[in-house]
């Protein structure tokens, strides 16, 4: 089986999970669920970055040791992922002993290459970013442009990674791999950064104790990016024997999903680090956008934070997943408003899909005693062709990471099914005595059922709980294989159709 490996960012545990971490994780889960449906051997990794000065400070402010703080926040991430129906295979924790071993071995490998050295560093440091800033990028008053907090002057003898050594190699790589960074417009940021010239960056801190010690130098702790990025690799190892001669299954990653604010760390730091270690590079980086609420940037001081648990409790996981996957073109910035949320979810899940499903099952109960009749179907009919070509359309959209376009394609078929029933009006044809009228009604109904089976399967990656209830009506958990998904007349005669109640209740 072809393997597919996708990762979310490793979320920083200085605070509880929020909508900014829930959104890309749901997106990653949908992509991975789809490729599993399509027959690939999928590994979906999410997890947490647990080291650094910011976490150390947060733990101290709460009277906790750093590990206890990390354990508590990590548990909350896992609880939220469960509520969101996230089906991950690997969960990275950078405080694990295995990760510690991998990072130290990687450090030694890069050092042996001649790419690590010691030097005095002076610069402006943002604790929130865990990154150094150039004066030209600061806001007025010496504020970080991302967090709007004042940067600190920092001076220390540290270990450095020779990033400048890989400047030309990185430029050549991006030129030869124009699709490596997605969406494509995000490459502009990286090209600008490269054009200004790369500087070596420090990979250790003497003043931070919460982290992985430098091998043979317990006074220095490995800097957060040189540590955290390796979580994508270290978590894949079942056992690590101290060298990288045999890489774990699934490496390299097919897709790293990351926030646009950490794109350069992945595109430049991470790629250069792997080049230095002579390890395979990831195949694609995808920088997703940010979310606003009612057109405004979210923040605690504004009091407009979106709490994922609150949305799930009030509206359900299906509505949550559908809104953020359907309403926001993946890669672009998006906005949440409760009014738009209710309108969109009601229009698509309650009205277009829910009403169709209920209407069809009621007709099946009335005229077929909820059993699939033995009717020969034509694969060349308009509804059959629209249904049978849909899986390939959805696959193409997912290959391009166009999640919302995939959902739009599915609901285009739902609209066609509604329109066809409105035109044929089988509920009227069943009342007529003419056998041809009843045959026409039966045909319209069984074609709609076959199409809804395909729709149910294709919706599973995006809204698994609701799709699962739809599939259960047909006595299915799935359609067994991608090949069967694209078959017509899959439903066997006399198949008993069960009742699932109201598929999706309107949100008031």
List the helices and strands and how they pair.
Layout: E1 3-12, H1 19-37, E2 41-49, H2 53-61, H3 66-83, E3 90-93, H4 97-112, E4 116-126, E5 131-133, E6 152-161, H5 167-176, E7 181-182, H6 187-195, E8 201-202, E9 204-205, E10 213-214, E11 217-222, H7 224-228, H8 231-234, E12 255-259, H9 263-276, E13 285-288, E14 291-293, E15 296-297, H10 308-315, H11 317-326, E16 334-336, H12 338-368, H13 382-399, H14 403-424, H15 426-429, H16 435-459, H17 464-473, H18 482-485
Parallel strand pairs: 1-2, 1-12, 2-3, 7-13, 12-13, 14-16
Antiparallel strand pairs: 4-5, 4-6, 6-8, 9-11, 10-11, 14-15
Helix pairs in contact: 2-3, 10-11, 12-14, 12-16, 13-14, 13-16, 14-16, 16-17
Walk me through this protein's architecture.
The chain is α/β, with parallel strands linked by helices and 508 residues long. The protein folds into two domains: 3-289, Rossmann fold, CATH 3.40.50; 338-485, Isoleucyl-tRNA Synthetase, Domain 1, CATH 1.10.730. 46% of the residues lie in helices and 15% in strands. Strands 3-2-1-12-13-7 form a six-stranded parallel beta sheet, with helices on both faces. It has a four-stranded antiparallel beta sheet with strand order 5-4-6-8. The protein has a three-stranded antiparallel beta sheet with strand order 9-11-10. A hairpin with a 4-residue loop joins strand 4 and strand 5 (131-133). The mean pLDDT is 94.
């Amino acid at each position: 089986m072809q393997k597919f490996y996708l990762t979310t960012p490793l979320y920083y545990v200085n605070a509880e999970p929020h909508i900014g971490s829930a959104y890309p994780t749901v997106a990653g889960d949908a992509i991975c669920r789809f490729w599993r449906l399509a027959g690939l051997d999928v590994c979906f990794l999410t997890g947490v970055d647990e080291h650094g000065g910011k976490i150390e400070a947060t733990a101290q402010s709460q009277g906790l040791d750093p590990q206890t703080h990390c354990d508590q926040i990590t548990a909350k991430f896992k609880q939220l992922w469960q509520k969101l129906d996230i089906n991950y295979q690997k969960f990275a924790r950078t405080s694990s002993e295995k990760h510690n071993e991998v990072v130290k071995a990687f450090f030694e490998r890069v050092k042996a290459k001649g790419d690590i050295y010691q030097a005095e560093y002076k610069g402006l440091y943002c604790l929130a970013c865990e990154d150094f800033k150039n004066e030209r990028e600061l806001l007025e008053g010496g504020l970080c442009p991302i967090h709007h907090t004042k940067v600190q002057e920092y001076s220390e003898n540290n270990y450095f990674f020779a990033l400048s050594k890989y400047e030309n190699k990185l430029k050549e790589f991006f030129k030869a791999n124009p699709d490596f960074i997605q969406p494509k417009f995000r490459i502009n940021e990286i090209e600008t950064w490269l054009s200004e010239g790369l500087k070596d960056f420090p990979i250790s801190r003497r003043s931070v104790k919460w982290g992985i010690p430098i091998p043979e130098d317990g006074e220095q702790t490995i800097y957060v990016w040189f540590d955290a990025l390796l979580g994508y690799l270290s978590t894949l190892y079942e056992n690590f024997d101290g060298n990288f001669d045999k890489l774990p299954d699934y490496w390299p990653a097919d897709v790293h999903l990351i926030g646009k604010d950490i794109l350069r760390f992945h595109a430049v730091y991470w790629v250069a680090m792997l080049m230095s270690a002579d390890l395979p590079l990831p195949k694609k980086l995808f920088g997703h956008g940010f979310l606003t609420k009612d057109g405004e940037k979210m923040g605690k001081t504004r009091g407009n934070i979106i709490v994922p648990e609150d949305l799930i409790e009030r509206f359900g996981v299906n509505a949550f997943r559908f809104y953020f996957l359907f309403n926001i073109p993946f890669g672009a910035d998006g906005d949440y408003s409760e009014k738009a949320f209710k309108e969109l979810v009601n229009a698509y899940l309650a009205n277009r899909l829910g009403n169709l499903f209920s209407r069809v099952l009621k007709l099946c109960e009335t005229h077929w005693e909820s059993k699939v009749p033995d009717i020969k179907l034509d694969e060349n009919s308009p509804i059959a062709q629209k249904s049978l070509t849909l899986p390939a359309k959805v696959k193409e959209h997912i290959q391009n990471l166009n999640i919302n376009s995939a959902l739009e394609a599915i609901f285009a078929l739902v609209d066609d099914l509604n329109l066809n029933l409105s035109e044929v009006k089988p509920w009227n044809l069943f009342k007529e005595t003419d056998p041809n009228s009843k045959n026409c009604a039966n045909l319209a109904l069984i074609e709609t059922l076959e199409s809804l089976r395909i729709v149910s399967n294709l919706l599973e990656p995006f809204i698994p709980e609701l799709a699962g209830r739809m599939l259960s009506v047909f006595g299915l958990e799935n359609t067994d294989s991608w090949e069967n998904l694209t078959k017509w007349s899959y439903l066997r005669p006399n198949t008993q159709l069960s009742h699932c109640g109201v598929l999706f209740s309107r949100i008031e």
